[in-house]
Design goal:
With 164 residues, the chain is α/β, with parallel strands linked by helices. It has one domain: Phosphoglycerate mutase-like (Rossmann fold). Helices cover 34% and strands 18% of the residues. The chain contains five helices and six strands. The chain has a six-stranded mixed sheet with strand order 3-2-4-1-5-6, with helices on both faces. Strand 2, helix 2 and strand 3 form a beta-alpha-beta unit.
């Protein structure tokens, strides 16, 4: 299995929104995300499924990415990437899918860093910093499991945008 983790793009500040979950992307965040998705397409990154947190900023990030990749029909929300986040819940979500699939998960910090660390080496608790619109790729021999991931890449949006 290939697992791609993506942090949502830049969102509006929280002070302007009574509910954190309703924060949309900034105009600049949406533009950057479109470029990130174009770079992923150019690199041949083509997930069979896209899961996103239901929070608006993550959902918009996933929608932009899915649209650029031509994958809007495989986009699904999952609270395992939102309010019900836990490594256990994300692994349960991923377990439902074939070992050979590439899956993109769009979520938040610090959840994505914790997830990546648990999938790479839970005992060492590696520290990974996801910037907004950052993308991390992992590979597993078989299904995703704690401590079994191999890091394939970690890109900042500026790294990806430089490919265009």
């Amino acid at each position: 299995m290939k697992l791609i983790l993506m942090r949502h793009a830049e969102a509006e500040p929280g002070e302007a929104y009574p509910e954190d979950a309703s924060r949309p992307l900034t105009v600049e965040g949406a533009k950057t995300q479109k470029k990130v998705a174009q770079a992923l397409q150019r690199m041949g990154v083509m997930p069979q499924r896209i899961f996103t947190s239901p929070r608006l900023r993550a959902r918009h990030t996933a929608e932009i990415t899915a649209q650029v990749l031509g994958l809007s029909d495989v986009l699904q929300e999952s609270n395992a990437l939102g309010d019900d986040y836990s490594v256990k819940n994300v692994l349960a979500l991923l377990r439902e899918y074939a070992d050979k699939e590439a899956i993109l998960c769009v979520g938040h910090e610090p959840d994505l860093s914790a997830l990546a660390g648990a999938l790479l080496c839970p005992a060492a608790k590696p520290r990974i910093k996801f910037v907004k619109s950052g993308v991390l790729g992992l590979r597993f021999e078989g299904a995703a499991a704690g401590g079994r991931g191999t890091l394939c890449y970690l890109y900042r949006p500026r790294d990806l945008c430089a490919l265009l």
